[in-house]
Amino acid sequence: YFTAGEPEVRAWPCEDGAPAPIAAGVIHTDFIKKFIRAEVTSVDELVEAGSMEALRAAGKLRVEGREYRVKDGDVIFFRIGG
């Protein structure tokens, strides 16, 4: 899966079909227990829209919970609690 934001897009390796909190844990292990939700789109939708902000403004990001299974080509913004 990918994360996208200023100033970069980054690829993160995880097992195909991993639960969202486990995929978030690839970025930082604290993200597993602090996971709130994932805002998800596809690479194609991101390229078409031009930015995550444009997708968010258009209401085109899917909000997924702890049970979401990450797919190859997902672009994910993780919401993490304190």
List key phrases describing it.
3-stranded antiparallel sheet; 5 strands; alpha+beta; single chain; about 80 residues
Notes on the protein architecture:
- The chain is α+β, with helices and mostly antiparallel strands.
- The chain contains four helices and five strands, in the order ββααβααββ.
- The chain has helices spanning 20-27, 30-34, 43-49, 52-57; strands at residues 2-5, 8-11, 35-42, 62-64, 74-80.
- The strands form two sheets. The chain has a three-stranded antiparallel β-sheet with strand order 4-3-5. Strands 1-2 form a two-stranded antiparallel sheet.
- A hairpin with a 2-residue loop joins β1 (2-5) and β2.
Helix content: 25-40%
The rounded Rg comes to 12 Å
The averaged pLDDT comes out at: 94
Main-sheet strand order equals 4-3-5
Note the beta-strand portion: 25-35%
Tally of DSSP β-strands: 5
Element pattern in H and E: EEHHEHHEE
The tally of helices reads: 4
